Amino acid sequence: MTTSEIGILIAIIVYMVGVVGIGVYFAKKNSTTNDFYLGGRKLGPLVTAMSAEASDMSSWLLMGLPGVAYVTGVCDAFWTAAGLAVGTYVNWLIVAKRLRTYSDVCSAITIPDFFANRYRDPKMLKCVSAIIIIIFFVPYTASGFAACGKLFNSLFGVDYLTAMIISAIVIVAYTTLGGFLAASTSDFIQSIIMSIALVIVLSYGIISVGGFDGVVAHVGDLKGFLSITSTHDGATNAATPYSVLSIASTLAWGLGYFGMPHILLRFMAIEDTKKLKLSRRVASVWVVISMSVAVSIGIIGYAMSAEGVIPNLKDSETIIVQIAHVLSTHGIIFAIIAGVILAGILASTMSTSDSQLLAASSSVSENLLEGVLSLNLSSGVKIVVARGSVIIISIIAMFLASNPNSSVFQIVSFAWAGFGATFGPVMLFALFWKRSNKYGAISGMVAGGIMVFVWKFLVRPMGGVLGIYELLPAFIVASIFIVVVSLLTPAPEKEIVDEFESIKNY
Q1: CATH of the domain at 368
Q2: What confidence tens digit (pLDDT) does each residue in 100-117 have?
Q3: Boundaries of domain holding 216
Q4: What is the reported pTM?
Q5: What is the mean pLDDT of residues 25-30?
Q6: Which of 169, 288, 311, 478 could link 444 by a cystine bridge, Cβ 3.0 to 4.6 Å?
């Protein structure tokens, strides 16, 4: 092993041992499923903010977003980031407090629980929403495992499959041991590591090409590369106009936030709604800065390739890995710093995967087994089932992640659309429209989920005006179904309406 590889390995091992240690520490604090899945609603404002955003950003932040900017320039990445930034702020502003209060009033510890209790439908809503979570979270989790495999394969030449499985085992270990508190605490730490990684990579990249002037010298003449109204075509060095429809489609990424279970659970877990303002500010600022830096790294990475600092990349999603590798060749100290960067990629992956595993696990143990099948399980058995569900779901995700050629960005974008279209409209109508009912909620979920698949695989490939991101049309269709079906079916019972009105008093 070279000095650089040793330094990198030291940093990564320390990180992995640390997160497993967090899991062991919090294991004894999980006496009930409320503790395991929601941390007893005791999260502080900073942990709430940073764990929510770390679990949101995933490997997409450090691999997917820079990769898109590296290939096509600023435009696509910019509008995606803008949509996500706006979505983050609005979600914290209008959803967080009301969901925290409402979920507590109706005794819900999972998102399917909330929908079922809100509409007094203990079977069907739990069943449908739990199935949706499993359908979209398993491949979402698989994308995280795949990112870990890519990381170690490109760094050390380790077999992709072996690396992916080992990484998955570490994630599963601390998640099954420590549950929500372990996941949230490790997410908070992981957000710090991700931030450090972004700053180091950005700084080194700028220095390595001779400053900002060096970056501009390499990318300034590339048509459409630095534009927010056109994308760059590397094969022809031509600019492709980015239409208003394309902008609207890309901004629609922000709609996904309203339906992300692993983010919404953070809202439900904060200890005090009065502290949500601080959480919102911290989360929003971090998201804007981190995504801006990630896009910049993609641009700088192209300049580094042109300068010969890093090779031309066949897989643009490994750009930060390549930069870290070059940095590690400058001595043991820089190798350890490179290890911190790569630990940042692991952190971004793990912070999402752990939250997704918990959300999917809760759907199986809490919603399907107990809620739908009416199994009367003791508190101790529930914990065992919860941990077993995490392991089983992880095995399925590992199987799906076994293909080393899978695109992190593409998998994440599809799963994001799935949750955004199925849960997003239902969540907004459940919180803010008292006339909505269980029939509207169920039909909206199903219609949104079906439309995601239809648009992704049948309509979008036609191109032209139909080539828009599937989240936007699916979100609209789901909303229409909720409104129309709710109005065509009986109004909610007085008990449901009274509970809805009572939330205003909190």
Answers
A1: 1.20.1730.10
A2: 999 999 888 788 889 999
A3: 3-505
A4: 0.83
A5: 65
A6: 478
